[in-house]
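Quick one: structure for this chain?
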Amino acid sequence: MKKLIVFIIGILGIISSMSSQTNDASPISPYRVQYYEAYPPLKETAQRLKISNYNSFENPTGIYFEAGDEVVLTVGDTQGQQLALRVHSFEGEKSDHTYPLQLGENRLAIKNKGLGYINFFTSDWAKVAPVRIRIEGGKVNGYFDKKQHTDKEWKQLLEQAVCNILDIKGEYVNLAYRVSSLKKYCPEKGWELINYYDKIIDIQHEMMGLKKYNLRPKNHMFAREVQSGLYADGYGAAFAYDCMNKLASVENIHKGVWALAHEFGHVNQIRPGLKWVSTTEVTNNIFSVWTRYLLEPDYQNLEQERVNDGDNNRVLGGRFNSYLNYGIVKGEQWLCQRGQDKMKGYENGGDHFVKLCPLWQLQLYYAVAGHGNYWGKPDWFADMAEIVRNTDEKGMDNGQLQLNFMRNMCDLVKEDLTDFFIKVGMLKPIDKDMDDYSRAQLTITKKQCKELVKYASRYPKPATPVLYYLTANSVKSYQRRIPVEGVYNGGLTFKEGTCTVSHDYWRNVTVFETYKGKELTHVAMVGTDSPDRSTTLVRFPEGSTRIEAVAWDGTRTLVYGKR
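Got it. Here's what it folds into:
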């Protein structure tokens, strides 16, 4: 009997050993023992770059804990640094607890369910070595690391997950997305998914000058899936469940580029120098519009989205036409221009997309049209960001911040852009209580406007006098500096107060202008209401006398009527 008991114990030991070996050989077993790296404190990174906080969930353990779990964390040499286990639940009833760790064995009673992260933030991050930690207890959920894993591991992680959240580690951004969403929308291409997110962040870092000036932080950006809404907060970016059909799908993510860049852009807004009153939803969108131009060039929001043009005409390019007609033609102040999202009460804060137009024109002119031309300055925004990062803005009011932007722009490109700034409504006297998430005063005086005009006069004027007419639809005409080609009265179709101009007859046009005698009454961006940009819909109400085609150099060519 004694021999039988010994035999049984031996067999059980072999089975246990085999089981242990099987677990150790599985793709998820390495999560039990890892080396965790140090990261710069979030506040230090935010203060240095003048941005919002990056990722507070660095160092995912890949271990899921339940409330009441008894766990042991064996911590290697901490080098005198403070480390902690953070357990956070992203679903249901949100819970978050932090457990300080010391060298050696740490026995913990976990208070809440959630995934584990090792807090290792220190000002000495560049000097300290990674710390080895062994975790006993909890369940292995795993995480996907772009640098280590392939789509084979991705599929295994989704199948073996014990928690409905999976951590995804990219080069510049980490995600915490629901396993149910990933199984549904991205069952096989995890590497490609996180790589696309990395591209978006890389574009933003380049625009911000973090690459040019060697300022890219070790900290990652962060996004997680939430029940509702699209927003940015102290954690990072947040994207709703019902958006995952785009944002978690490799096949459809290009359709969500604007939203992704927009929310990450909020985190990366440089404040206050590039984020003053009434620009909270504007200067982040310079990231969105540029990212979409690079990654989704066939569909541009400002030029090709069907929206109200400010005059209750739903047309492709309605946003830009609102800007052209209410900003350029009617002379409304920048930030106070009418558009689809602000048809009433826009006098103290207009349509956010319309506000974006002049910033987009600067990017198009210097980064795209400037390619191969003497005025090219593809990294002007990077240089602007660096100037702002190094400017002491304490005590500056919103008007001074706006004036500084214009002054810096002239200095960066070595051109006098004051005609442009006046035309778009940016360099005009204003004294208003402006709308934003927090209302604030914006005051620019006539004297300040005159002083900036005088200051900028040291530089030559830009090659084009109609920079304010530039769009993505006409950027090639500016870049190639080519004249308008057209046949008077050719290719025109009139109908109910409009004229449709065929581009079989009219080429290289920036905009079409409609006049009533000497008065400019309407402007139509080239390609207005044309999906393939083969025509332009021009407003020609009763009493109109002529239509002019405007070239990149400001030359007008008569299309219809008499001068």
